[in-house]
Specification:
The chain is an alpha/beta fold. The chain folds into four domains: 3-133, Response regulator (Rossmann fold), CATH 3.40.50; 138-309, Rossmann fold; 314-389, Helicase, Ruva Protein, domain 3; 405-448, Arc Repressor Mutant, subunit A, CATH 1.10.10. Helices cover 48% and strands 14% of the residues. It has 19 helices and 16 strands. The protein has helices at residues 11-23, 34-43, 60-70, 85-93, 106-134, 147-159, 176-185, 204-212, 229-232, 248-260, 286-291, 297-303, 320-334, 344-352, 358-372, 385-389, 405-423, 428-435, 439-448; strands spanning 3-7, 27-31, 48-52, 76-81, 98-102, 138-139, 142-143, 166-169, 194-198, 237-241, 262-264, 271-273, 277-282, 306-309, 341-342, 377-378. Strands 2-1-3-4-5 form a five-stranded parallel sheet, with helices on both faces. A five-stranded parallel sheet has the order 9-10-13-8-14. α4 (85-93) links the parallel β4 (76-81) and β5. The longest helix is centred in the N-terminal third of the chain and has 29 residues, at 106-134. The protein is elongated, with a radius of gyration of 30 Å. It starts with a strand and ends with a helix. It binds adenosine-5'-triphosphate and magnesium ion. Residues 176-177, 241 line the site of magnesium ion.
Length: 452
């Protein structure tokens, strides 16, 4: 139950307002002067202050100022006498939530009070989330309260001290690299290097020299001997990102290192032995790749000693408010802005969005929203357009002038296809799957709607 503090020097008003607001389901405290109000607030948490403007000794403006110094977010509604608009304007400029002119209808008061209390509820919820973040919903920089994330925190704690090889899988942007780093920095190897290699970024020949190094004269241009990433990571952790992209010949070499921790530099004969902990990541389905022989089964088993599967963000929506609060705090600090909260409507939207780019996409959206938002609250207006234009809310039909059926169906079809493409990162076969139609059928429709 929310608590409202009513401040007025006219006792009758206190009695009447108290009765009405109690009836509306609020806990009501009263004070007949500003000083008394501040004393009450010293010992009791209130959710709204409803204060008269004209009072002897401390007036409503002065009380408002004092309250804002102590709790900037606490809503204050001022009651002004009829015809004192300047005072009301001054109060609004000083951060009053709203004002109401006496005498007023109960219904008007009720609306203003309900709105103020609801707004403050969101602010408090945000604060609670941020506090929770400092605690058990956080492991290093990884945020998550959902069951799968909590289970992942447990796994990290268990495997970090060992040297077991870990395979991290999950869609793009789900946090694979973040997990790899958390494992390294919670292991006894933390003071030794964490070396990351993206296997997709390098051509096969380059990947080999990158991983294993080369001897002087191994190939044209190899004027000096160069250590590879395995040697650089000695004593530490090597993170092989996008392991699904590794060609068969490099797969063989990796297998050998995993088995013996021994390899030769390119162009060399001397065996080099290293002590490296390996973590691999991929957004590919390695099991299927094993089945169709594009990934070696023996290497897969070597890598898959411990498997961490990061679920897509849309399957752990309870993490979204938490992540949003975390990113809002992070980027508000970066942009030198004060505390920023998220409106209830925007939170709901973010929780229902499907986030094909997962946490990375959410992080980018919040970073932008923090920069664009004017006050200290992120609203729907601050969210990236492209998220919203594909939301389910939008139905491309003009209800005013009643569309013709074939046109309306066409418009809906086009919108569904666009949405399916968005959700599947433009992979046509997946989009067709989502829509439940054969791929050829999708292609025909893409042409028809000029979406190619
Ligand atoms: N649970 C989380 N808590 C906080 N930040 C997260 C979380 N998951 C991901 N992030 C952030 O999202 C961004 C993307 O994460 P990361 O680079 O680890 O994803 P990835 O799975 O490796 O993506 P890709 O497959 O595209 O390489 C990073 O900025 C990361 O810090
Ligand atoms: Mg990555």
């Amino acid at each position: 139950m929310e608590t409202i503090l009513v401040v007025d020097d006219e006792k009758n008003y206190l009695v009447v307002l108290s009765a009405f607001l109690t009836e509306e389901g609020y806990e009501v405290l009263t004070a007949d002067n500003g000083q008394r109000a501040l004393e009450i607030m010293d010992v009791t948490e209130v959710d709204l202050v409803l204060t008269d403007m004209k009072m002897p000794s401390m007036d409503g403006i002065e009380l408002l100022k004092r309250i804002k110094e102590r709790s900037p977010e606490l809503p204050v509604v001022v009651m002004t006498a009829y015809g004192t608009v300047e005072k009301a304007v001054e109060a609004m400029q000083l951060g009053a939530f709203n004002f109401i002119q006496k005498p007023f209808q109960n219904e008007t008061l009720k609306q203003i009070v309900n709105k103020a209390v609801a707004t403050y509820r969101v602010v408090k919820e945000n604060r609670r989330l941020i506090q929770a973040l400092e605690g058990r919903y956080r492991f290093d920089n990884i945020i998550g309260k959902s069951k799968p994330m909590q289970a992942i925190f447990d796994i990290i704690q268990k495997v970090a001290p060992t040297r077991a090889t870990v395979l991290v899988t999950g869609e793009s942007g789900t946090g694979k690299e973040l997990i790899a780093k958390a494992i390294h920095f919670n292991s006894p190897r933390r003071s030794k290097p964490f070396i990351a290699v993206s296997c997709a970024a390098l051509a096969e020949s380059l990947l080999e020299t990158e991983l294993f190094g080369h001897e002087k004269g191994a190939f044209t241009g190899a004027t000096t001997t160069r250590k590879g990433r395995f040697e650089l990571a000695d004593g530490g952790t090597l993170f092989l990102d996008e392991i699904g992209e590794v060609t068969p010949s490099v797969q063989v070499k990796l297998l050998r290192v995993l088995e013996e921790m021994t390899f030769e530099r390119v162009g060399g004969t001397k065996s080099i032995t290293v002590d490296v902990r390996l973590i691999a990541a991929t957004n590919k389905d390695l099991k299927t790749m094993v089945k169709n022989h594009s990934f070696r089964e023996d290497l897969y088993f070597r890598l898959n000693v411990v498997h961490i599967e990061l679920p897509p963000l849309r399957e752990r929506t309870e993490d979204i408010p938490l992540l949003t609060a975390y990113f809002a705090k992070k980027y508000a600090r970066k942009a030198d802005k004060g505390e920023i909260s998220i409106s209830a409507e925007a939170t709901e939207f973010l929780c229902n969005h499907r986030w094909p780019g997962n946490v990375r996409e959410l992080e980018n959206a919040i970073e932008r929203a923090v920069l664009f938002c004017k006050g200290n609250e992120i609203t729907m207006d601050d969210l990236p357009r492209e998220l919203i234009s594909f939301s389910d809310l939008e139905i491309p039909i003009d209800w005013q002038k009643l569309s013709k059926l074939p046109e309306a169906l066409d418009a809906i079809e086009k919108r569904l296809i666009q949405k399916a493409l968005l959700l599947s990162n433009n992979v046509q076969s997946r989009a067709a799957n989502l829509l439940g139609i054969p791929r050829a059928n999708l292609q025909y429709r893409l042409k028809k709607h000029n979406l190619l």
